[in-house]
Amino acid sequence: MKRDISIILVCLSFVLIAGCSWVDLLDLTPIGWMPEAIIAEIALDAMLSGDEDAVEWIGMEVRSSDKSLSRQYGIDPKEKGVVIVKVEPQGAAEQFGLMEGDLIKKINQLETNDIEEFYETAQIIKDQHVKELDFTIIRLGELQQIMYPPKKEGEEK
Predict the structure, then answer these.
(1) Right CATH number for 53-157 from 2.30.42.60, 3.90.45.10, 3.40.50.1820, 3.30.70.1060?
(2) What is residue 141's three-state secondary structure?
């Protein structure tokens, strides 16, 4: 038990000092010293306990929608979801067609009403090695669906 606590502290220190994302911590599990579920719980708790509720995933940073972000991006403050506040140039999110200011409502039909649900959804997608993503977003006040890879003409959605 004492060894596990020491390893957890080393991992969390590595994440904080090295500046990698909390999701990167989950990639340490193949070395076999701690169950992935425990690491996921620790990472989620640590991520949510910070000053900023932000998650980085597939080349974007998202935050829970709040009054300030709603005002900044022209989003109806009653809408629930996570707001894309940063998109990495040439990153996966940009290639998918996602943009800063998009409000993500669902991914693959799983609701993302807040940062915790978003994180859990991202983890499910990672764990299941999902290759197709279906984002339900609000962009400039309109509900849209973004599929990746994009569906070709004539294909069913």
Answers:
(1) 2.30.42.60
(2) coil
Q: pTM of the prediction?
A: 0.66
Question: Which residues, in sequence order, are bridge partners of residue 139?
Answer: 142
Reference 79, options 145, 147, 142; nearest CA is 142
70 is written with which tokens?
């709603």
pLDDT per position as a tens digit, 26-70: 444 444 455 555 555 555 554 443 435 788 888 999 999 999 999
Q: Dig out the tokens for 149 from the structure.
A: 């890879």
Mean pLDDT over 82-110 rounds to: 95
Q: In this structure, what token pair is assigned to residue 35?
A: 């169950």
Detail the DSSP E strand segments found in the chain: 54-57, 60-64, 82-87, 103-107, 110-111, 133-139, 142-148
pLDDT of residue 37: 53
Domain range list for the chain: 1-50, 53-157
User: Residue 148: phi, psi to the nearest 5?
Assistant: -140, 130
